[in-house]
Amino acid sequence: MLGAIEAGGTKFVLAVGPSPHEITVRHTIPTRDPETTLPEAAQWFAAQGTLTALGIGSFGPVELDRASPRWGFITNTPKAGWADCDIAGFFGKALGVPVGFDTDVNAAALAEYRAAAPKGCRSLAYLTIGTGIGGGLVLDGQPVHGIAHPEMGHIFPRRAAETREFAGICPHHGDCLEGLASGPAIIARWGASLSELAPDHPAHGIVADYVAQACHTLFATIAVERVVIGGGVAKTAGLAERIAARTAQLGAGYLPGGTRHRVQSPALGENAGITGAMMLAEALV
């Protein structure tokens, strides 16, 4: 029996099952402070029976260097109370099992890659547009980390002159992608979520343009075949289509991948993150 956690800023999704394709029980708890949330999750897993391994896809930033004494930690997150939290270490000790650990978006990217691989896809990026913006990248079945994990939400999009009056809300960078197009940024600028604004409101085109620039950057720099757009903001009616159309415009017919470059919604829907976390556990057995 495998266990999985999709650790998000607002909720923890917990699951057990014999494989990523056979999740038998699922449970959701709110993300409060670590002292409350982690023991509650561990208690739930203990009630499900003996686990073989646990996979965690977590909000970040996180430490992924296995050589670091802080591997498995949530590091300098702005989420109150969660900085320097040894999340992987806690569950490893509490449940007595090996733990696979990665970012929530890398986990989702792994799951979406597995779904796309039978169709010949060998490279895929996953962008989540929600409370924050993050991205995961998988090439030939392996998540890309580098010295740390990617922080695709903190690239700087090109801004039209008429949009520059908004400074952005990122506490580190101001008008990076997350500071301009995340859910809180949209509310800070226009006073409502994107789905609450009228379909002809200019916010839809502006947000689509910012995200499309990130997609184009991925196509142009890494030649990734697919960019999957997930997250709460991405559920806004028509946004995915706007992003895909704008990305094609930005490519201007030049990118050598041609029509193999695709922007799409998650094939696994809301199951991408928890499926990927289960895959992290599966890799340990």
Question: Could you give the topology of this structure?
Answer:
Blueprint: E1 2-7, E2 11-17, E3 25-30, H1 34-47, E4 53-58, E5 73-74, E6 85-86, H2 87-95, E7 99-103, H3 104-116, E8 123-129, E9 133-139, E10 142-143, H4 177-181, H5 183-190, H6 202-222, E11 226-230, H7 239-251, E12 262-264, H8 272-282
Parallel strand pairs: 1-4, 4-7, 8-11, 11-12
Antiparallel strand pairs: 1-2, 2-3, 5-6, 8-9, 9-10
The CATH homologous superfamily of the largest domain:
ATPase, nucleotide binding domain
Question: How many strands?
Answer: 12
Total count of helical runs of at least 4 residues: 8
Q: Give average pLDDT, whole number.
A: 94
Helix content: 25-40%
Task: Give the neighbour order of strands across the main sheet.
Answer: 3-2-1-4-7
Which CATH class of the largest domain is shown?
Alpha Beta
The helix/strand series, from N terminus to C terminus, equals EEEHEEEHEHEEEHHHEHEH
Q: How many strands, which pairing sense, and closed or not: the largest β-sheet?
A: 5 strands, mixed
CATH topology annotation of the largest domain: Nucleotidyltransferase, domain 5
Which outline best applies? globular
For the termini, the CA-CA separation is: 10 Å
Strand content: 15-25%
